[in-house]
Design brief:
134 residues, Arc Repressor Mutant, subunit A, 6 helices, 2 strands, 63% helix, globular, disordered C terminus
């Protein structure tokens, strides 16, 4: 499935670029979506084998640090991400996707690809989210 993995990365990168364009045009405070932004960053970072620290992840969300930290806590509580103290630098907290988080992102990216390619019917767009929230 290397082709599917490559396609997911391309979609994810385009979504991040689109989010940045939207934020630049409207101002990030008017179109904040920190959970989506952070999940996309984690997905890309893990495929690029980059370590993501809590501080940089919160910066990536374009919301106040306290808001971003609350969102990370929410994602952790529903099993999408995990926090680990970095073993080399005890001050750093590393954030990674859980298997559920990765599965959710891949499911959403596949669904968005279907929509973009006109392959999707009028299915409910939240069905993938409901699966992981329950």
């Amino acid at each position: 499935m290397p082709h599917r993995s490559f396609a997911r990365m391309e979609i994810c990168r385009k979504l991040v670029t689109m989010r940045k364009a939207l934020g630049d045009a409207l101002g990030y405070r008017h179109c904040a979506n920190p959970i989506w932004d952070m999940l996309m960053e984690l997905y890309i970072a893990e495929r690029e084998r980059r370590v993501v620290y809590l501080w940089s992840l919160c910066s990536f969300a374009n919301v106040p640090f306290s808001t971003a930290c609350r969102k990370v806590t929410e994602m952790e509580e529903i099993g999408l991400v995990r926090r680990n103290t970095a073993y080399r630098d005890r001050r750093g907290v590393v954030v990674t996707l859980t298997d559920n988080g990765e599965g959710l992102i891949e499911s959403l990216l596949d669904r968005l690809a279907e929509i973009y390619n006109g392959e999707s019917t009028a299915r409910a767009g939240v069905s993938a989210l409901v699966r992981f929230a329950n």
